[in-house]
Amino acid sequence: xxxxxxxxxxxxxxxxxxxxxxxxxxxxxxxxxxxxxxxxxxxxxxxxxxxxxxxxxxxxxxxxxxxxxxxxxxxxxxxxxxxxxxxxxxxxxxxxxxxxxxxxxxxxxxxxxxxxxxxxxxxxxxxxxxxxxxxxxxxxxxxxxxxxxxxxxxxxxxxxxxxxxxxxxxxxxxxxxxxxxxxxxxxxxxxxxxxxxxxxxxxxxxxxxxxxxxxxxxxxxxxxxxxxxxxxxxxxxxxxxxxxxxxxxxxxxxxxxxxxxxxxxxxxxxxxxxxxxxxxxxxxxxxxxxxxxxxxxxxxxxxxxxxxxxxxxxxxxxxxxxxxxxxxxxxxxxxxxxxxxxxxxxxxxxxxxxxxxxxxxxxxxxxxxxxxxxxxxxxxxxxxxxxxxxxxxxxxxxxxxxxxxxxxxxxxxxxxxxxxxxxxxxxxxxxxxxxxxxxxxxxxxxxxxxxxxxxxxxxxxxxxxxxxxxxxxxxxxxxxxxxxxxxxxxxxxxxxxxxxxxxxxxxxxxxxxxxxxxxxxxxxxxxxxxxxxxxxxxxxxxxxxxxxxxxxxxxxxxxxxxxxxxxxxxxxxxxxxxxxxxxxxxxxxxxxxxxxxxxxxxxxxxxxxxxxxxxxxxxxxxxxxxxxxxxxxxxxxxxxxxxxxxxxxxxxxxxxxxxxxxxxxxxxxxxxxxxxxxxxxxxxxxxxxxxxxxxxxxxxxxxxxxxxxxxxxxxxxxxxxxxxxxxxxxxxxxxxxxxxxxxxxxxxxxxxxxxxxxxxxxxxxxxxxxxxxxxxxxxxxxxxxxxxxxxxxxxxxxxxxxxxxxxxxxxxxxxxxxxxxxxxxxxxxxxxxxxxxxxxxxxxx
RNA sequence: GCCGAAGUGGUGGAACCGGGAUACACGUCCGACUUAAAAUCGGAUGCCCGCAAGGGCAUGUGAGUUCGAAUCUCACCUUCGGCACCA
Length: 845
What we know:
This protein is of the alpha+beta class. The protein has 28 helices and 33 strands. The strands form ten sheets. Strands 10, 11, 12, 13, 14, 15 and 18 form a seven-stranded mixed sheet that branches. Strands 2-1-26-27 form a four-stranded parallel sheet, with helices on one face. Strands 6-5-9-19 form a four-stranded antiparallel sheet. Helix 21 (636-652) packs across helix 23 (700-717) and helix 22 runs antiparallel to helix 23. It is globular. The protein binds one RNA strand of 87 nucleotides through helix 1, helix 8, strand 11, strand 15 and helix 12.
């Protein structure tokens, strides 16, 4: 501990553990979930993965969230603010492989450490409902929910091309593959494609509903990200008959049915199922070679947008259903098998990619949409812009129609002929949930090895949980330990009792985090995952806080779960939380992301040892707007540390004097004691209004500044005639109450001393009501008005609020400074914003 | 390339509805206290000109709207985040 804290009487190292123990003893933070006397407020912050180290980033989520909860408590709410651990996951397995320790032991050891570290924050967390997802009492219900999903067709198993991380040896959900480099979200290794039989959750069932954010307070950018991820496109599905005797049809999806007359060729994805049947014998060798290449190429090569287009013709033709025209069929890897129908009609005149392809292979380009902006003969790029004046051309009977109407008319015509219909397509894919790992919730399915008619059998509810084996001595570096375990996967078929083999895939850890807040309500419940009565009483969650990095991961999966569980009748709501806040990141002092390898990590334990938890909390709130990213500043924390010590000083010793303080003990020049006291009270109540208002938008940084300003005022008045008087005392009382949510130990200590000094019975400051400001004191009776001449500040006047405009005008025009500007000019008009500003507008004479 | 967020002193940031730009804090400088240092207390601190009074210029750049723009509009630049041939 440094010298200033040793010498100063404020000693957080002594105060904080003492009060934390006392609060726990009183059960101050344990919510009675069945109480009905108070309004309820479910406050949730993202539970952490127990990596072993609590870092300052965790603090910057938990501490301000705690402030919000404490503020609500002081308004009489029954606040439920639980905590737990997202305990399954790969780091534990990696530790097991490296250190020879069972993932369970590693994880639970880390949890013990982190629990102690979280408690240092002094947050009003309800630990009585703590849950750990790696506990069978939790993942049992993952399995139970999985079975219900299977029954509803929300969980299914399918062979599909999937993303595989060659380092972690698992498949990944589409959302877990990041960036253009297509790397694993966890380890950063580039993924590869594999065809594998995997489990999926049918997230696409709720694609449309997920697009609606009605009644939700989410950050706008997050809504945009989710909306883009879901990627809804409206258009038409159109069938092109193949021009042979096979009767085969190629279905395409297009957002531009209005351009159908401009389709001059078709392109299938190389993996399209019709390719073999359509390939002309003469083209076979070339097509095979192309498909082989396409398969060999990594996804990154295929998806690179600046790559030159490639493709080969199949030697077959299709018939345009609207014009009867015959057009060639190609395959090219710029068409994706996983989107739409895996085939497109190519309209080079009105699509950039098709244009490029047509140019490369000298295919015809026909303009069918024209506007004043397009000169058809001189196209060097596709015309895709939507202009209000565009009309169809070269489009038979449809020529002359405005493009949007043409799209509708063409679709209608096709529909009549049974060759098309309007259609909607999404980018969103179903969620791939199975993982080939040994530290996760086992998927509750058995494959019968005796009776083929049994096949895949769901494990009956009464056989849950299927627990993980805990006798794995050495965690295998390669492969799934459930697969290689001597006995674990061997079981009997629940259907025929013959020999059976367990599913050895486990669930994605995002399944765990998709429903944990419901389990918090009753984490030991034995007869179901969620207590329905408590769910109705407490959900949806009022406020959820956490990082934005989960925008299309956890935050979308959880919304899917809310809809699925609602459909199952398990919860009463369809959206999990009403309001969501994404806090920003604290960067290292070098402005880079904090990481051990960079050596720029701030250790919260060390900071607490040096400054105390209250100072760290306060600094986290003061240093930046909550949503912003900003670098840590080791010097900056001294400012809030100083603030608390000064507040301690003025509170405990109002009449004292600091060394070298010549000004000390004097009232402000020209003011009486009465006026000074009045000013102080006004400032205290104005501060109370500012702080109260700032809570609504989580404006922590300005809230702390306001308290600092008020404190500076007290420091200036220390030792003066009014120090320790009524106005002073009221100011101190309000300051402590305002500070209580932010610096709970500090405020509690001074509050208890204050009560003792007044001979009043002790009651925790955290059970006090939030004070209300006096509107009369907040209102001003005099204002200082800036006076502008032609928009430039030239003078200031002080007037009573509500002074009539005419009176102000004559006052302003009579001011010496203003008159100086009027010598060579005449007044055109005088603009007044009541109580804000006066602006004299002139023009030269 | 597309989508989103953001650019304000030496630094983190404030400025609510278009109305005093730079609150609060860090840092720096000067002073007090001290044998001295630390701590503490007081003062100064956007840039330029000026002894001063005062004046001019400043919110990424350039235009525009307005009596008045950090704030609104358009174009552009930079940084960060997301997406990445999605038909």
